[in-house]
Amino acid sequence: MSTSTMTAPKTPAPEKKPRKRPTISVNLRQYGILAALAIIIVLFQVLTDGRLLFPGNINNLIQQNAYVLILAVGMVIVIIGGHIDLSVGSVVAMVGAISAIAIQQWGLPWWLAAIVAIAVGALVGAWQGFWVAFVGIPAFIVTLAGMLLFRGLTLVLLTGGTISGLPEGFVAIGAGWFPGWLGELGGRDVLTLVFGVVAVALLVLQQARARAAQRRLDLVREPLVSFWIKLGIASVAILALAWLLSDYAGTPYILIILAVLILAYTFLLRNTVFGRHVYAIGGNRFAAMMSGVKTKWIDFFILTNMGLLAGLAGVVSTARAGGAVASAGTNYELDAIAAVFIGGAAVTGGVGTVVGAVIGALVMGVLNMGLSILSVDAAWQMAIKGLVLLLAVAFDIFNKKRGSAG
Asked: What's the farthest any 2 CA atoms get from each other in the chain?
């Protein structure tokens, strides 16, 4: 008797699909803003017969626009989160008044007065964040009320109109330079040149490590050629800036403050849970809430942080002016918002970068300086800036429509 065994047919092994390479993309919006900034610089350099890039003008560009850069760093986070802050100009004025009063009337050391003033800014942000996050009043309304409230308090604090005669240490925050500790070489400040070389080295190291991490995690990354071109242009720009400043008075203190802020907040948005939650809330608040994001606390900290940076901008602005003025901070909120939108942030939230906001602020600053050198009337300067803002937002909307149609 024989038995037959039936063997099940062998299931063919599934074909091993080739690993799909990550999609390579280039941020055309970001490159467009950079190209626009470069064109504006070249245009005004020609129109002003080379005066735009005089070392003194570059120094003034940094110190005069420091408040816009600081506010833009905070405002881009607010706008990414789907909010708006109209009160920052008034907060700048009030904090500036408090810093001057703390020095002149309370007798505090200038550095302690600066810390107190910045802390007041953070408290103001927390106050507004409470109404937005936990009471549910839209940020537009809360900060509009804050714009009126804090401007009124500034007028109450500065009954005499101005407070001047602030100490040199305080004034140096906004209008001082690092001493030439390393001496000069060919009439140029060596310390400033060293700062430039170190900044380039750190930039190349950070970008190379970030790209290596993207490759290791198989994430989207831009083409290698454009990566090195972008890095090369940024490095040349940093070295050129250091070269020009070394022929003037050296490195402004505020430039180092700005560099630290830009690096810190870029890291915050890109590499932390808080940053990812800000983008998630701005992109789709309901989906973020369903995913477990504590939207109320994120909103609270977004506005608290904006108040903190408005406080810092108030100290810097007051130091640059050498005194507190009741009219300080006028239209600062408009400059910061314009810089963020020119820098590529979306009106609807969820999109934007710190670097883009900084580039937008530089576009505004170069426009201001170039038009001033050409002695263009202030009214026309405002009109031109308004037109630039409109075109930037229109370009963003056009790109979105084209993307959705494709």
From this structure: 119
Q: How many other C-beta atoms can be found within 10 angstroms of the C-beta atom of residue 380?
A: 10
Scanning 322-377, the segments in alpha helix (DSSP H) are 332-342, 354-373
d(CA 126, CA 257) in angstroms, rounded, equals: 23
pLDDT, the chain, mean: 88
Yes or no: say if 230 and 214 are a contact pair by the CB < 8 Å rule: no
Residue 184: enclosing H or E segment and its boundaries?
strand 184-185
Q: Do 312 and 325 touch, CB atoms closer than 8 A?
A: no
Neighbours of 69 (CB within 10 A): 26
| DSSP run (H or E) holding 242 | helix 224-246
C-alpha span between 92 and 329 (Å, rounded) = 6
**Which residues, listed in sequence order, are joined to residue 252 by a DSSP beta bridge?**
177
Q: What is the CA angle 249-163-319, rounded to 5?
A: 25
* Residue 227: closest CA among 241, 212, 238: 212
How far, in Å, CA of 277 to CA of 269, rounded? Answer: 9
| Burial class of residue 254, CB neighbours in 10 A (0-12, 13-18, 19+) | buried
Render 387-402 in DSSP notation, one character per residue.
Answer: HHHHHHHHHHHHHHHH
| Lookup result for tokens 């977004």 | 302
Chain segment 281-327, per-residue pLDDT in tens: 999 999 999 999 999 999 999 999 999 999 999 999 999 999 999 88
Q: What is the rounded CA–CA span in Å between residue 49 and residue 40?
A: 14
Domains and their CATH numbers in the chain? 49-176+253-398 (1.10.3470), 178-251 (no CATH)
Question: What does the pLDDT look like over 384-405, one tens digit per residue?
Answer: 888 887 887 777 677 667 666 6
Contacts of 136 (CB under 8 A, 6+ apart): none
Residues 72/312, Cβ–Cβ less than 8 Å: no
| Residue 50 in tokens | 């080379």
Whether residue 99 contacts residue 311, with contact meaning beta carbons closer than 8 Å, is answered with: no
Q: Which amino acid is at 226?
A: S
Residue 384: count of CB within 10 angstroms of its CB: 14
